[in-house]
Amino acid sequence: MTKDNSAELPSEVARQPLEFQSPVLERRKKPIVHPSAPAPLPKDYAFTFFDPNDPACQEILYDPKTTVPELFAIIRQWVPQVQHKIDVIGSEILKRGCHVNDRDGLTDMTLLHYACKAGAHGVGDPAAAVRLSNQLLALGVDVTLRSRWTNMNALHYAAYFDVPELIRILLKGSKPKVLNSTCSDFNHGTALHIAASNLCLGAVKCLLEHGANPAVRNSKGQVPADVVPDPMDMTLDKAEAAMVAKELKQLLLDAVPLSCNLPKVTLPNYDNIPGNLMLTSLGLKLGERVVVDGQKLGTLRFCGTTEFASGQWIGVELDEPEGKNDGSVGGIRYFICPPKQGVFASVSKIAKATDQLPSSVTSTPKTPRMDFSRMTGKGRKDK
Fold this sequence. Notes:
Blueprint: H1 11-14, E1 33-34, H2 55-61, H3 68-75, H4 80-83, H5 86-95, E2 103-104, H6 111-118, H7 126-138, H8 154-160, H9 164-178, E3 182-183, E4 189-190, H10 191-197, H11 201-209, H12 239-255, H13 275-282, E5 289-292, E6 296-304, E7 313-318, E8 328-329, E9 332-333, E10 342-346, E11 350-352
Parallel strand pairs: 1-2
Antiparallel strand pairs: 3-4, 5-6, 5-11, 6-7, 7-10, 8-9
Helix pairs in contact: 3-5, 5-7, 6-7, 6-8, 7-9, 8-9, 8-10, 10-11, 11-12
């Protein structure tokens, strides 16, 4: 923040309730790096993490003697109890005279970095993260600052954790500065590269809406569409992720300007290879016994193209309910089997069940248990 007079803050901040505005009376003029400290916990506390909802923890949280390094240590705890209260803890840090751009000595992250991380759906809470981010932006936080350990700025964190709500806020007033900024930890890719490589569909859509360049290449010569994980390389039972990958890749390719010619290898397509030819080349046919990924036994029920991902996919009815579907994905049926016994896998993960299998999947004959309950002592030899 460049001025200490709260009356000179933007009008939208002046209208906010007083409890939302951190006191500016004793705020330092320059940011510092706070030393690392352990997270404080109540005496004889039953848990290993700080819970801001617990009365004993609240006493510590609101105690003026609790230091900024200790509060940073609390924020570092990656648990819902803490991350859902990021706005409350962040406000307490600011109330202790912390500069808006101060850093945590252990991670070199600022409050804005932590806010973007805390927006992650599930562990975090986007609404709480937005509240803290708005407060920090109103106080003049520098959105271009990076952590020295990850070289990521706030936009990179928001893209990595798929928080479009924060991306919109960050780009509202600083779009030219950070929109296409690169990060060395991601092969000098942009936020769009980071989001694409992590299948963050919401973040990618938001970045494109705000003008992110889908034709920027990283240090490996890859555009964002090139770093989308290949569904064919995904582990088993990842049909939903494969659908996201397909949509994400096409979205990024469609966003590339027509004047920018990408190499044809950007989107490999094996859709035109007939399934029967693929099976023949593998020495397989429908109905045969196969082993999936060297672990799960089943019957080959399908081979061909799908709507959830490009390329050829093998559909297998597993012997045991260890799958993810009943032969259908996204409302489209490819084969029929009982629920939880269907699975789709890339061709490379399928082998004939008659081939040598690892000991972990070779079945041992089941022998019936002998019932000795009816035996009497007459059959025994007395000694």
